[in-house]
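Appendix B, Record 12. Input sequence as logged:
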Amino acid sequence: MENLTVAPPSTYPVRRRLPGTAERRGTRSGLSVAGALWFGLVFVGAGVAMVLLGLRVIPSDPGSVHAPWWVIQVCGVCFAGGGIAVWSMASTQWREDRRRHDAARRYGGSQALLDHGWDVRGFTPPRWKRAAQLIMMASFLSLFFSVMNWIAWFAHAPVLFQVVAPVFDLILLVVWWKAAVETARAIRFGNSRVVFEHFPYALNASVQLGWVPPRGITRAEKGSFTLRCVEEYYEERGSGSDRNRWLVHDELSAETQAFDAPQTFAPGRAVELRFTPANDALTTRLAADRPVFWELEVKLARAGLDFEERYLIPIYGS
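Logged structural output:
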């Protein structure tokens, strides 16, 4: 391993909301697997029916339809997409339930291995996952906002729709831009990894990690390595029929090591990092209804495309 010249670590023990889109880490959907399957079926069924209606496979009185057929088809795809997303969450929870059952039989009382399917040697984030998720989100929003734009400009809607529609279009452009950036990072940098010196780590001990940079990075002008504890939960916004649930991440504590002078990285050679979590911090519980997890965030400023990635770290009880 090699050492970087970094500033003394700084800690941030105050809860704060992490900006940006939260990546779901927990495995609980808030519904039972059977409940999620039935809930998703309602949306998929309604969506398929709307698509078939829009394709005129299901007969209807044209005089009772007050929107173009393509609008009905798009609404159906959006409904079905929402149901498929719920099914995906149910599938993740079902696989984790089976994995925990198998882990209880194989590993007995190992808290870490019962909680999550860790690779005890280290953590490699999926190279294309974030880019694929953003592309799917941008595609879904493109369909949904196409209907909103039709309502705003062609359906004689109130002026409020004409004011709101451009705002949503700007949001859509930002999402597509983020998807393009994440895709470019996946292509440019390749895989990176964190190597665990111990498994699992404890709160009352030093956390020593080896960060293996991707082969696409040999130099950075400045950067930071942050080990943080994060709580994940859903926050309800709105009221009545307009109520929505948003996934949010709150940072409970963090320790950062940063460098402001240019640093070079040897391909395949791990960078040694050492942190000391607070003794009173929360331990990892990814299988809980309100998950808590530790992650290492790496940010590197480079000429051209910057690098940013997060790695799950197994920090459990003493």
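The chain is about 40% helix and 25% strand.
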